[in-house]
Amino acid sequence: MRGLRGEGLLRQPRGAVVCAAVVSLLLVAALMACTATSTGTRDEGPARSEPVASSPTGAASPTPRVRRADAVELLKADPEVDPGVKRDLKPCVGDEYPVDVSYGDLTGAKVSDIVVNVLTCGDAVGVGAYVYRAASQEKDAGQATQGYVNVFRNETPPVYAEIDRGDLVVTRQMYDKGDAVAYPSGEEVVTYHWKDGTFAELYRMHNDYSNTVTSEPPQALGGSPAAVGDGTGSGAAPGA
């Protein structure tokens, strides 16, 4: 009986055993939760942004430097210029010559190209258009004038050359019989691009004008209107 009493003293209540089991399960669950949290995604805060390498852009080509030249002396010393153009190239008033000069990039040289237009004094009709490029010491040493060489010329009047976005644009006014100098019947525009050491024609355009309406009467041009066309379609201007 004493043994039974001792066993009774060591026996724990059934409710206490259940509570201990529940606590053990909770501890195991807590440990599993901690383990899952430690192996899951870590909260690192805001992601660090890395600099993105931008693709390199093409560097703009340097603008050719402008080197002024005496256009009149350039024309007179140029063997490519027609002798008649040289002979008629005289000052209109004082020492002012009828010459228009433009500087710009046409050939890709380090020095700006020069476009020279020779006009008549009275009606400013273009009698010659020329382009000069900076001479290369290796290739053009014997042909250079003031450090330039002639790379284009058009001496079919009336003609005028201009630089337009890196291209050479040459315009010729066309006259029919009886046309006044200020009112041509049309014009022909040719665009050239520098390629392989020469100017190559890109495209050609022709415009026809109407002379039925003018902005001012012919008398306002000074005296009676001059008839410049010869009826052959050549479009020649007076004095050309």
The total strand number stands at: 8
Low-pLDDT stretches are: 1-13, 36-49, 51-56, 217-233
Strand order of the largest sheet: 1-2-3-4
C-alpha Rg (nearest Å): 45 Å
Strand count, sense and closure of the main sheet?
Answer: 4 strands, antiparallel
Helical fraction: 10-25%
Proportion of residues in extended strands: 25-35%
Termini distance?
A: 152 Å
Q: Mean pLDDT, nearest integer?
A: 76
Number of helices: 4
Shape: globular
Class per helix and strand makeup: alpha+beta
Element-by-element helix/strand order: HHHHEEEEEEEE
Organism: Streptomyces gougerotii
Protein name: Lipoprotein CseA
Biased composition (Gly residues): 230-240
Region (Disordered): 38-66, 210-240
Layout of SSEs?
Blueprint: H1 2-10, H2 14-39, H3 71-77, H4 83-88, E1 99-104, E2 113-119, E3 126-134, E4 148-154, E5 159-164, E6 167-174, E7 186-195, E8 198-208
Antiparallel strand pairs: 1-2, 2-3, 3-4, 5-6, 6-7, 7-8
Biased composition (Gly residues): 230-240
Region (Disordered): 38-66, 210-240
Keywords: Lipoprotein
Can you walk me through this structure?
The protein has 240 residues and is an alpha+beta fold. It has a domain at 71-221. 20% of the residues lie in helices and 27% in strands. It has 4 helices and 8 strands; from the N terminus they run ααααββββββββ. It has helices spanning 2-10, 14-39, 71-77, 83-88, and strands at 99-104, 113-119, 126-134, 148-154, 159-164, 167-174, 186-195, 198-208. The protein has a 4-stranded antiparallel β-sheet, covered by helices on one side. It has a 4-stranded antiparallel β-sheet with strand order 5-6-7-8, with no helix packed on it. Strand 5 (159-164) and strand 6 form a beta hairpin. The longest helix is centred in the first third of the chain and has 26 residues, at 14-39. The chain is globular and about 55 Å long. The model is unreliable at 1-13, 36-49, 51-56 and 217-233 (pLDDT under 50).
